[in-house]
Amino acid sequence: IFHVFRAEQKFADHMKEKNEASSEFAKKKTLLEQRQYLPIFAVRQQLLNIIRDNNIVIVVGETGSGKTTQLTQYLHEDGYTSYGMVGCTQPRRVAAMSVAKRVSEEMNSNLGEEVGYAIRFEDCTSEKTVIKYMTDGILLRESLRESDLDHYSAVIMDEAHERSLNTDVLFGLLQEVVSRRSDLKLIVTSATMDSDKFAGFFGNVPIFNIPGRTFPVDILFSKVPQEDYVEAAVKQALQIHLSGMMGDILIFMPGQEDIEVRRFFTSLLQPQCNMRLEDLENAPPLAVLPIYSQLPSDLQAKIFQKAPDGVRKCIVATNIAETSLTVDGIMFVVDAGYCKLKVFNPRIGMDALQVYPISQANANQRAGRAGRTGPGQCYRLYTQSAFKNEMLTTTIPEIQRTNLANVVLLLKSLGVQDLLLFHFMDPPPEDNMLNSMYQLWILGALDNTGALTPTGRLMVEFPLDPALSKMLIVSCDMGCSADILIIVSMLSVPSIFYRPKVPSVHCSDQVREKFSVPESDHLTYLNVYLQWKNNNYSSIWCNDHFIHTKAMRKVREVRAQLKDIMVQQKINLVSCGSDWDVIRKCICAAYFHQAAKLKGIGEYVNVRTGMPCHLHPTSALFGMGYTPDYIIYHELVMTTKEYMQCVTAVDGEWLAELGPMFYSIKHAGKSRQVSNILPEYHTQHIQCAFVTLDHKTSHKGQFL
Ligand code: ADP
Ligand code: MG
Questions:
Q1: Which of 51, 168, 317, 672 has its C-alpha lying 20 to 30 A from 477's C-alpha?
Q2: Lowest-pLDDT choice from 76-85, 283-292, 562-571
Q3: Which residue, 520, 518, 549, is CA-closest to 535?
């Protein structure tokens, strides 16, 4: 571990010197040279010709060929930005930010001026912006305001092979926009060969292939299945590192928790890992650099910097480095074989982020990362038979596996009446669609005919999950909108609390208890924010209390943005003062469908399904001896068990009052109990109703 840190320091010093030394001119020249070395540069004019002659073009090219960074600039250089912006969508926030930064450097301008980006709750563009990178979700929301996307002269839908939910919806919408606007160029890019499908979808449009420049990659499979992929990856990385072979290493892990430098370092030090870096005298320095979506952007930028001579880079990434981000100089790939996917879980009635084996297509993309600058090697920490027999050829598109409530809301508000007839490349399973509509009906966003209600219309205005929007909307009438606004903002920013790197784990937990409101994690969040505010939004105060200052600043920004929307929508800001029961009831009004009931000591079961679920150890209610009869939860996290994350105690009577479609109060002797009134019954009937209504026959009310 000593070596690792020493290397990091050396690395940082080196970068500082290098940046100071390089004159602006030299930097510009090398960037230009780099641009001209990319495979796409050789076909620049052909590409521009085919785009000039066609409204829609599919562009296929290996990862790293220059699609994302160069296409926008070529269109700009060719004059397209004289009558509108060139927009480029990304399925991932990190990619949008990182690429925008790179392109602004290549164009020698400040980020946010000519080249900018927009992701949810963060708009880094200005009047000057002509090239705009954004998440696909942002463009989707823009199409709500401006259905013909008049601000754009060209839209590049990047990373189409990822088949993200929003990209899939954009396919259908943009195709219509292009048919209305003959001056709009639509370019769909993909790193893989499923381009025929895209071309067919848009009506046999041309496909342009960027000739690649790749080197052979040796693929080595594990002989036996690996039990602990983190440990296996650490061992493999060390073996490569000590072998004397040159070149940087890229390791694919499923999620942030595995990558968190600490976990990785801890593994480096574990006694059972028989090759500990610490014990190895004269081991050459290794710079371990993590990259995942929640990593602060200054640290993200590190992966692209060249390591000083003699220091090997070892990047530990999620599948973000599979196609969205390309790092030069990688010779070795270590692939754990897993990724995290959001999948609708019918058992819990909602999406759950879970670890799944990757597909063969993912595996091949990952291997390809080792062959960009020279011949490489890919170590797969799974067996050849697992690859052949257990992995799907390609990943199932998100639209076929996740909750579609937001998409339904959006399409309904765009006037798409019959969702089952919308032009999807791969239509979602009907059950998914109907289930999402059912969830929106529960929240009062759709009426009995499946049409958008005034509440639903209002919900669309917020860039939030439906239940969170609902909570904001009802909070006004309940007299606690100012408080709920803070809670919603806190829930929209990940990881507020942190544990200190080395010592005194207890200490941070104790400090954290200071904020705990025993009956609610939501109120605990409110408490943290209010205390921070009372301390003049101080960063010292944050540090003293093991709270991420940056995260809190983000919360404040999110709050300001949501407040603007509330003001626009004439939702008054009122606080309930110290009567926090009102807040709990308001949370219940939007989350009654996610309720759990106490069963035995500290054990909960879902009220609707009877499925056992557990308090998360980070909950304010955990281990406090106070176990309320009923709680609602913000989300379920599935690890070894089903954990409820962010919970609040509620009254059983509130559940019956606010969620009458699920619960009623049973009078058993003197005690009163909330019971489940067969949600299946409703589900079936509502589903029938929506099916008929989507085919335009009205059966209003018959099923309720
Ligand atoms: P593609 O989209 O075809 O996968 P890109 O346009 O993303 O290719 O990448 C082209 C080149 O730009 C790559 O060599 C990559 O390393 C480099 N690059 C992209 N983003 C950055 C960045 N933020 N910093 C440094 N180099 C970058
Ligand atoms: Mg790209």
A1: 672
A2: 283-292
A3: 549
Angle at 415 between CA 414 and CA 419, to 5 degrees: 100
Q: Which residues pair with 376 in a beta bridge?
A: 217
Who's near 284: CB < 8 A, 6+ residues apart?
Answer: 3, 241, 310, 311, 312
List, for residues 642-663, the tens digit of each pLDDT value: 889 999 999 999 999 999 989 9
Question: Concatenated DSSP letters for 403-421?
Answer: --HHHHHHHHHTT---GGG
Exposure letters 434-455 (e unless 16+ CB within 10 A, then b): bbbbbbbbbbbbbebebebbeb
Angle, helix 405-413 to helix 430-442, in steps of 10 degrees: 80
Q: Is the pLDDT of residue 290 over 80?
A: yes
Q: Nearest 10 degrees: CA dihedral of 586, 591, 593, 599?
A: -90
Alpha-carbon gap, residue 526 to 159, rounded angstroms: 38
Task: Find out whether 403 and 442 touch, Cβ atoms under 8 Å.
Answer: no
Instruction: Find tokens 């990259």 and name the residue.
Output: 291
Q: Give me the count of residues in the chain.
A: 704
Residues 624-645 have a mean pLDDT of 86
Q: Number of C-alpha atoms within 13 angstroms, CB side, residue 52?
A: 9
Proportion of the chain above pLDDT 70, given as a percent: 85
Token code pair at residue 348: 């819990």
The yes-or-no verdict on residue 74 having pLDDT over 60 is: yes
* Cα gap 466→327, rounded to integer Å: 37
Pocket test for ligand 1, best of 37, 63, 68, 72 (most atoms within 8 A of CB): 68
Residues 337 and 362 sit within 8 Å (Cβ to Cβ): no
Which residue's CA is the closest to the ligand 1 atom numbered 7? 68
- DSSP assignment, residue 395? P
Contact 311, 7 (CB under 8 A): yes
**Per-residue tokens: 61:** 């090219």
Pocket test for ligand 1, best of 102, 133, 295, 327 (most atoms within 8 A of CB): 102
Instruction: Tell me, using a 6 A CB cutoff, whether residue 321 lines ligand 1.
Output: no
SS (H, E, C) 127-187: CCCCEEEEEHHHHHHHHHHCCCCCCEEEEEECCHHHCCHHHHHHHHHHHHHHHHCCCCEEE
Q: Which residue has a Cα nearest atom 22 of ligand 1?
A: 102
d(CA 148, CA 108): 31
> Is-above-0.80 flag for pTM?
yes
296 Cα: distance to centroid of ligand 2 (angstroms): 21
Say if residues 437 and 189 touch (Cβ distance below 8 Å): no
User: In angstroms, what CA-CA distances link 332 with 219, 364, 534, 655?
Assistant: 10, 14, 51, 55
Least confident of 158-162, 264-268, 370-374, 610-614: 264-268
CA of 69 to the centre of ligand 2 (A): 7
Q: 527 vs 306, 354, 484, 515, 626, CA distance in Å?
A: 44, 31, 12, 6, 19
pLDDT digits (tens, 9 = 90+) for 682-695: 333 332 222 222 22
Q: What is the ipTM of this complex?
A: 0.98
Q: What is the dihedral of CA 361, 365, 370, 371, to 10 degrees?
A: 100
Q: How far is residue 278 CA from its own chain's centroid?
A: 35
User: Could you read off the pLDDT of 163-202 as tens digits, one per residue?
Assistant: 999 999 999 999 999 999 999 999 999 987 678 999 999 9
Ligand 2 centroid–CA 35 distance in Å is 14
> 604: which 2 tokens?
């909960």
Hey, which residues does 642 pair with through a beta bridge? 638
Tell me the C-alpha distance between 648 and 499, whole Å: 23
What would the two tokens of residue 191 be? 């790193």
